[in-house]
Design goal:
Layout: H1 3-9, E1 10-17, H2 23-33, H3 43-53, H4 58-63, E2 70-76, E3 79-85, H5 93-101, E4 105-111, H6 118-130, E5 134-139, H7 148-159, E6 162-165, E7 167-170, E8 178-181, E9 186-189, E10 205-207, H8 213-217, H9 219-235, H10 241-246, E11 249-254, H11 263-273, H12 278-282, E12 294-302, E13 311-319, E14 322-323, E15 326-330, E16 335-339, E17 343-346, E18 349-352, E19 355-356, E20 361-364, E21 375-377, E22 389-390, E23 394-400, H13 406-418, E24 423-426, E25 436-439, H14 443-456, E26 460-464, E27 469-474, H15 477-481, E28 489-494, E29 499-503, H16 506-515, E30 520-522, E31 529-530
Parallel strand pairs: 1-3, 1-4, 4-5, 5-11, 6-11, 22-31
Antiparallel strand pairs: 2-3, 7-8, 8-9, 9-10, 12-13, 12-21, 13-20, 14-19, 15-16, 15-21, 17-18, 23-25, 23-26, 24-25, 24-28, 27-29, 27-30, 28-29
Helix pairs in contact: 5-6, 13-14
The structure holds guanosine-5',3'-tetraphosphate (G4P).
Length: 534
């Protein structure tokens, strides 16, 4: 198959949702249909399966949250799906944001009973900012909720996105009877007893015009269905693929992931509507040809698996064909490197990748060769600027509790900062080489401590700091050195030796700006830094 055909087959996407909406369940069902996993038909098996598919870090198990991002690849109906599992927890939005830079579209999963929740809102904001097409799956239709019209209204009022239902639920909760497919005009019946197993359960369907329908679903629900569909025809949005691809309009599907209902109806439409990797290529078509290989690093993770103590740089292929052992250039360092140990990851299992195409994610193990955001390519003209760095919002002092482990401590914090988990700052006046950590959320500090212990054998102490504001300083070095910061600010250096100042209040910052008109107080050290959405 040509590169173009391979690219056309691919859909690279992420599922965004609030914890508990059913993301793990839906992911498993997608994998199941793709034949990627064998699943016994019980909830218990599902739980075990969950441990096997995404919780690869001890901490995830302890906290019951998903911290690391998983990349899963599976085939379905001649298509190759690359599913990026974004971490759901609030504090990990920087990592989530980076992961979303590798996706071409997002599936927004909403719990029928809870509607649009906080985490969904934040993740939606990130997708919106990136202009990602968003597909909505309203899950748990077997539970009671405010009703489909109310959910659509919420999408518009809370998220500001117009929606177009592709199918429409008939009843909900105990009265859930199935969905009406507006395009085929078929009613697919929900059969709870048939669910939970390993197969799609939408096979049983009849036309909406079938005279038997009112008898099957009951007069009341039939009347409601006719009313609702008429209302949608008159007052609803028209389907418009261009608007979907621009992220202006979200197609909506209803179902119940737990009982497999509506998942394949969704998946089939998703495959036809979701963007192929070529859309991304469109942006750089003047710089490269489709067969020039190019990719960018969107995530770096150390010690993902204790059995393979290595660091993996996840790259998203944008163009060309990747072949094992190919030689590429890292545009940042201008260094040539051989991509000799590429890996595809399926939870804890790894397999060596021989070839990969646009949309695919590779795990590269070349230690030290990559930094977040790096472009690797056979064509030096292209440099992707997709992966932002973030301005930290919380700070803490980290101390090493075991002097004999200093080397491990230093290696650990350096590697974790390269992953983008934290940023490092140093006090030039302090004799100890103990860093100040900057992060987006405090949970990241806990993760750093945990990982330093688990992966580097170093016990640490963390002391939260009250500073909330950071500025990078640009101006006369002697003047910067001489600034008296007082008790509500501190002068530090970032990991590249650039002077920064931390402040407890905006007011304190404004005061210093006024005192030092010749010094620039920058919100970020360069254009690359981005304020976090949401
Ligand atoms: P998450 O990854 O988004 O956090 O959610 P997860 O899939 O773990 O699902 C959260 C809970 O919602 C689980 O129940 C799961 O079984 C349930 N669930 C998922 N899809 C549906 C659905 O379509 N209908 C209904 N009624 N429930 C659904 P749990 O009791 O927390 O866990 P478990 O005992 O099922 O593992």
């Amino acid at each position: 198959m040509s590169i173009e055909t391979e690219a056309k087959r691919r859909r690279t996407f992420a599922i965004i949702s609030h914890p508990d909406a059913g993301k793990t369940t839906l992911t498993e069902k997608l994998l199941l249909y793709g034949g990627a996993i064998q699943l016994a038909g019980s909830v218990k098996a599902r739980r075990n399966q969950r441990t096997a598919t995404s919780d690869w870090m001890e901490l995830e198990k302890q906290r019951g949250i998903s911290i690391t991002s998983t990349v899963l690849q599976f085939e379905y109906r001649d298509h190759v799906l690359n599913l990026l599992d974004t971490p759901g927890h609030d504090d990990f939005s920087a990592d989530t944001y980076r992961t979303l830079t590798a996706a071409d579209s997002a599936v927004m999963l909403i719990d029928n009973a809870s509607g649009v929740e906080t985490q969904t809102r934040k993740l939606f904001a990130v997708c919106k900012q990136r202009g990602l097409p968003i597909f909505t799956f309203v899950n748990k239709m077997d539970n009671e909720g405010p009703g489909p019209l109310a959910i659509l209204a919420e999408l518009e009022e809370v998220l500001g996105i117009r929606s177009v239902p592709i199918n429409w639920p008939i009843g909900q909760g105990v009265d859930f009877k199935g969905v009406f497919d507006r395009r085929t005009r078929m009613v697919h019946f929900y059969d709870k007893a048939a669910g939970f197993g390993a197969k799609a359960i939408e096979a049983n369907a009849i036309s909406i015009d079938d005279p038997e329908l009112p008898k099957i679903i009951g007069e009341n629900l039939y009347k409601q269905l006719i009313e609702d569909t008429e209302l949608l025809e008159v007052a609803g949005e028209e389907f418009d693929l261009d608007r979907v691809l621009k992220g202006d309009l979200t197609p909506v599907f209803f179902g119940s992931a737990l009982t497999n209902f509506g998942v394949s109806l969704f998946l089939n439409e998703f495959l036809t509507m979701a963007p192929t990797p070529e859309m991304r290529l469109e942006k750089v078509k003047d710089l490269i040809k489709t067969d020039d290989f190019s990719a960018f690093v969107f995530k770096i993770q150390a010690n993902m698996d204790p059995n393979h103590r290595d660091r993996i740089a996840f790259v998203r292929v944008v163009s060309g064909e990747f072949t094992k052992d190919m030689e590429v250039t890292n545009v940042r360092s201008a260094k040539k490197l051989k991509l000799s140990r590429p890996q595809r990851l399926f939870a804890q299992e790894r397999e060596t990748v021989e070839v990969a195409y646009p949309g695919d994610i590779l795990g590269l193990t070349n230690p030290g060769a990559f930094m977040l955001g790096d472009t690797v390519t056979t064509n030096l003209k292209v440099k992707y600027d997709e992966v932002p760095e973030f301005v930290p919002e919380v700070f803490a002092r980290l101390s090493n509790m075991d002097v004999s482990k200093l080397k491990n401590f230093e290696k650990g914090i350096e590697q974790l900062s390269q992953e983008g988990l934290i940023q490092l700052f140093w006090n030039p006046k302090s004799v100890s080489r103990e860093p100040i950590l900057g992060a987006i959320g405090r949970l990241q500090f806990e993760v750093v401590q945990y990982r330093l212990m688990a992966e580097y054998g170093v016990k640490t102490h963390i002391e939260p700091m009250v500073y909330e504001i950071i500025r990078w300083l640009d101006g006369d070095a002697a003047e910067i050195k001489g600034i008296y910061w007082g008790s509500s600010a501190v002068g530090l250096e970032d990991n590249y030796g650039v002077p920064v100042a931390l402040f407890t209040t905006e007011w304190g910052c404004a005061y210093q700006v006024e005192q030092h008109p010749k010094i620039k107080f920058l919100r970020s050290p360069g254009e690359k830094f981005t304020a976090l959405a949401g």
